[in-house]
C-alpha cells in the first residue's frame, strides 16, 4: 500500500476531519511499527521463549491493534479499497499471532487466573472485533471468518448479538444469536435491522447512521478527532457490512456521514461472498510463508510489489522480502 502525497490526499480523502499531518504521521509510524515488531519477534530470546510469555505477547498485541488502525487510516485518507483488501490477510495473521501468544500466556503459570479476552466484547476493544469481521466481509475475505471464533470466544463471558448475526450468515453452525449487544449503544439497533422485513431496512439503516455518532458516546473513538494522532476516522463498519450482506437498498443513505460506502461498492463490484452459500472453492486460497504449499501451482504474495512463484504441493512457501513484516500468499492457478 502506497501513502498518498498531500495533493492526492486533498483530492481523495474520505474523512473530512482527517488532516494530512495526522494521516502522514500515522501511515509512516504504523508501517515502521510492523517492521520493528517483526524484528523483535525474530530475536532469539523471543523465539526460544526466554523472554517470557507476557513480554512475548506485548509486541504481538500492539501489531494486531495497529494493523486495524492502519486500515482505518488508509481508508480515511483515500487509499484504494483494493489495496486495503490485499493487506487484510496480513491483518488476520497478526491477530492469529497475537492470539497464539495470548493463549500461551493464559495457560502458563505467569498468566494463570488472568481470564483476559483476546477481543474483550464488554469493553472499548469491541471496536476491533467489529472491524475485523466487517472488513473480512467487505474486502472479499469472508472465507477467513472461520478463524475469528477462536479469538472471540476466548475468555469472553458472553457473545454479542450483532457480531453473531454477521458471523452466522457465513458460519451457520454458529447459531446462538443473543438478543442483546455487549456494548449496547450504538449497536443494539442493528438487531432491528436484521429482524425487519426487507422493505423496512433502508429506513432503519438511514436512522441508524443518523444516530450513530452521538449514540457512540461511550466508545473510545468518540471525539477522537480532538486528540491528535489517535484519530483514524469515524466509520460505521457494521452499517456497511450489514447493508452488503442483507442486500439493503442504500440509495437513501449512500452519502450519509459515517457510512463507508466505498467498501460496499467494492464488495459489490468484486461479487464478494454474501453468505456461506457463496463461499465456493474458487475463492482465493491464502497461506502464509513458512507453511507447506497446500495446492500446486502459481502463487502470488499479497504485498507491494507482489511476487509470483511456482510451488509444488508440500513445498515450503517462501518470499524474498515482505513490506509489512509478514508474507501471505494467494493461489492463482495451476499453470
From TrEMBL:
Alphabetized InterPro entries for the sequence: PA2201-like_C, PoNi_C
Domain of life the protein comes from: Bacteria
Domain PoNi C-terminal as annotated: residue spans: 160-263
Pfam family, any one: PoNi_C
Protein name as annotated: PoNi C-terminal domain-containing protein
Classification lineage: Bacteria, Pseudomonadati, Pseudomonadota, Betaproteobacteria, Burkholderiales
Amino acid at each position: 500500500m502506497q501513502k498518498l502525497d498531500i495533493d492526492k490526499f486533498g483530492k481523495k480523502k474520505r474523512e473530512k476531519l482527517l488532516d494530512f499531518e495526522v494521516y502522514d504521521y500515522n501511515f509512516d509510524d504504523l508501517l515502521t511499527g510492523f517492521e520493528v515488531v517483526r524484528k523483535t519477534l525474530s530475536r532469539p530470546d523471543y523465539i526460544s521463549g526466554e523472554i517470557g510469555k507476557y513480554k512475548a505477547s506485548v509486541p504481538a498485541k500492539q501489531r494486531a491493534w495497529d494493523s486495524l488502525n492502519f486500515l482505518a487510516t488508509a481508508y480515511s485518507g483515500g487509499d484504494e479499497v483494493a489495496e486495503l483488501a490485499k493487506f487484510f490477510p496480513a491483518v488476520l495473521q497478526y491477530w492469529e499471532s497475537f492470539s497464539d501468544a495470548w493463549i500461551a500466556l493464559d495457560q502458563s503459570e505467569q498468566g494463570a487466573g488472568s481470564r483476559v479476552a483476546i477481543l474483550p466484547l464488554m469493553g472499548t476493544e469491541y471496536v476491533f472485533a467489529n472491524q475485523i469481521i466487517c472488513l473480512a466481509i467487505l474486502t472479499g475475505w469472508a472465507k477467513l471468518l472461520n478463524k475469528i471464533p477462536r479469538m472471540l470466544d476466548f475468555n469472553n463471558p458472553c457473545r454479542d448479538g450483532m457480531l453473531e448475526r454477521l458471523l452466522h450468515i457465513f458460519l451457520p453452525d454458529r447459531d446462538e444469536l443473543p438478543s442483546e449487544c455487549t456494548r449496547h449503544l450504538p449497536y443494539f439497533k442493528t438487531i432491528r435491522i436484521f429482524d425487519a422485513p426487507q422493505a423496512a431496512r433502508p429506513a432503519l439503516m438511514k436512522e441508524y447512521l443518523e444516530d450513530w455518532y452521538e449514540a457512540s458516546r461511550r466508545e473510545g473513538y468518540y471525539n477522537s478527532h480532538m486528540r491528535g494522532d489517535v484519530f483514524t476516522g469515524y466509520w460505521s463498519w457494521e452499517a456497511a457490512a450489514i447493508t452488503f450482506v442483507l442486500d439493503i437498498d442504500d440509495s437513501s443513505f449512500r452519502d450519509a456521514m459515517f457510512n463507508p460506502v466505498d467498501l460496499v461498492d467494492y464488495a459489490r463490484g468484486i461479487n464478494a461472498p454474501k453468505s456461506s452459500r457463496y463461499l465456493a472453492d474458487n475463492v482465493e486460497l491464502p497461506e502464509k510463508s513458512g507453511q507447506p504449499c497446500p495446492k500446486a501451482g502459481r502463487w502470488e504474495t499479497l504485498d507491494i510489489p507482489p511476487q509470483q512463484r511456482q510451488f509444488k504441493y508440500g513445498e515450503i512457501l517462501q518470499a524474498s522480502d515482505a513490506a509489512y513484516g509478514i508474507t501471505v500468499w494467494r493461489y492463482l492457478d495451476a499453470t
